[in-house]
Amino acid sequence: MRPVEPHDKDKTNEELAREIQRGLNVDENFRLLSKRCRPQLHSFFRRKGFSPEDRDELTQETLFSVYNGLKGFRQESSFDSWMFSIAMNVYRSDLERRRAQKRDAPLISLTHEPASENNEFPPLAERIVDPKPDQLASMIDKEKLQKLHEAMEQLPAQMRRCVELRIVHELTYKQIADLMGIEINTVKAHLHQAKKHLDKKLRPYFGGIDI
Amino acid sequence: MKAARAKFDDGNVRHLSEAEMVAYYHERVSAAEREEARLHILQCDHCLQLFKDVSDFFDPRREDEEEIDQLQIRRTWNDFSKRKAASGIVEPARRISFPPAALPLAAGLLITLGLPTVLMWRERQERLQAQLQIAQLQSRRQDLDDRMSQTERIASDQLEQERERRAKAEARLKDLQIRLDGLKQSQQNIPIFPIGSESIRGQQEDSLVSVTRTTKTFMLSLDIYNPYEYPEYVVEIFDQHGQRVKEISRLRPVGAVKTLNLTLNRRSLKEGKYLLRLSGWRGGIKKKIEEYSFSLNLSG
To answer: Which of B91, B122, B135, B149 is most buried, taking the most CB atoms under 10 A from its CB?
Structure first.
């Protein structure tokens, strides 16, 4: 194997990919490419909430797909963009697989029970869940939602959007700042103000608010 | 992004593609396009999610995130290499690109220069191959000649040895024949005296053995009743005083009538009466069988 020359490290990912496609020093070039990409992939799967073991596995899976797909990489898009697509495919496939595992899990019937001679007990579902929900609790939930809605409506539009992006879409400060076209400190200030306002308005209903 | 702009103006029908979102993230689009995309993303949950995915992928390490362990990277690279080797992936074939004009030029050069060279090279290779085959055949023939001459040499030596052995054997045979003839001649001159026993022949008197003065040796021929009873026999000779004067062992019956022959020297015995005691010999045990008596007369 040819030792890595100093200028190899200066090559872009696209250049490395092109050399691999041509069969030039494949192992070493891909090792270099993998060394660059692995932290990025690892970080991506960590941000998606995977455990360390799953991150390793998905990172390997992505790199394996990259290696297999390099022959078909046409350099029409950037290498990073192409690798992002692969990582997303791996991510979605894994989510789908996990959903399928949940679907295939054995189901327990909540209504059907083995026949008993003296049907003295109500069905299992009726014992677990009250078939007649507490009307008072339902009313309280609706009232809570109403209060939340009213409190949010009282916020300025930009501040309200910041809160939605933070709570509903779980974006970071930076992502919110990028999308909103404002500074990160502004985002932080918005969220701080929103927290104070919502805390004041909703404490009797929700307790403390954490944004 | 122009298509995207039309799309965004048209009620957000189509979402940003991944490539478009990556371009947006890296600010590889114009400011106007970026602003339009941004407004669309803010209004579209789907694109908002894609924006989050792209940001999660491309964002540098965040403040609350730990750095990736380099040791772990090396370890996972090793795992990857093993997996790659186990999967038997064929690495991408090496492709060499040439300028468009290179191919016709190469073809022209090949025709004008390369073809005669190739033909000459081919002829030379065939000639060398033929020479090599001839050399191999000559070497093989030389080897066979060597083996043939070696075989002939060995055979000649063996034949000579056989002739020598045969000549020696013939010479020895001739010598033995001469000695045998001499023995036969001498035996013909030895007088033989049959000695009978009372139990076999009913002989009452002693056998008379009369030896002339010129006779050096004489032979006593003893009748024996059952010659195959013992493998060997012993004869003891006693004088008239009962003194044993001679013992002859390892005797075996000979001749058609199976008699025991004793060759005696004239000087070993004096005139007088003698008793012969015949005993069988088997396994170191001697057993008496018969007795004979004879009178020896040396004056005859």
So the answer is: B91
Task: Read off the pLDDT of each residue in A187-211 and give the average, rounded to a whole number.
Answer: 79
In order, the DSSP letters of A91-150 are: HHHHHHHHHHHHHHSPP--SS-----SS--SPPHHHHHS-SS--HHHHHHHHHHHHHHHH
Q: What is the mean pLDDT of chain B?
A: 81
User: Between A140 and A168, whose confidence is greater?
Assistant: A168
Task: Please check whether residues A96 and A48 belong to one and the same domain.
Answer: yes
Is the pLDDT at B90 greater than 80? The verdict is no
State which residues form the domain around A37: 6-103
Q: Which residue of A has its CA nearest to B40?
A: A179
- pTM, two decimals, is 0.49
- Inform me whether the pLDDT recorded for B35 exceeds 60: yes
Pair (A12, A97) in one structural domain: yes
Spell out which residues of chain A touch residue B72, defining contact as CB-CB under 8 Å. 56
Q: Scanning the structure block, which residue is given the tokens 């020696």?
A: B168
Mutate to test the interface with B, among A85, A178, A187 (most CBs of B within 10 A): A178
Chain A hits for B18, Cβ within 8 Å: 81, 84-85, 88
Question: Is the pLDDT score of A5 beyond 60?
Answer: no
Residue type at position A85: S
The tally of domains found in chain A comes to 2
Residue B172's pLDDT band (cuts 50, 70, 90)? very high
Residue B161 has pLDDT above 90, yes or no: yes
Cβ separation of B97 and A22 shorter than 8 Å?
A: yes
Q: What are the chain A neighbours of B84 within 8 Å (beta carbons)?
A: 64, 67
A77 lies in the same domain as A163:
no
CATH of the domain at A38: 1.10.1740.10
Tell me the CATH number for domain B192-297: 2.60.40.3350
Q: On the CB side of A141, how many CA atoms lie within 13 Å of its CA?
A: 6
Q: What percent of chain A has pLDDT over 70?
A: 76
Report the distance separating Cα B20 and Cα B29, nearest Å. 9
Contact B38, A165 (CB under 8 A): no
B58:A26 CB<8 A: no
Are A169 and B97 an interchain contact pair (Cβ–Cβ within 8 Å)?
Answer: no
Return d(Cα B1, Cα B12) in angstroms, integer.
Answer: 14
CB pairs under 8 A between A and B: 107
What lies within 8 Å, CB to CB, of B208 at 6+ separation is: B294, B295, B297
The complex's ipTM works out to 0.74
Torsional class of B88: left (φ above 0), alpha (ψ -120 to 50), beta (otherwise): left
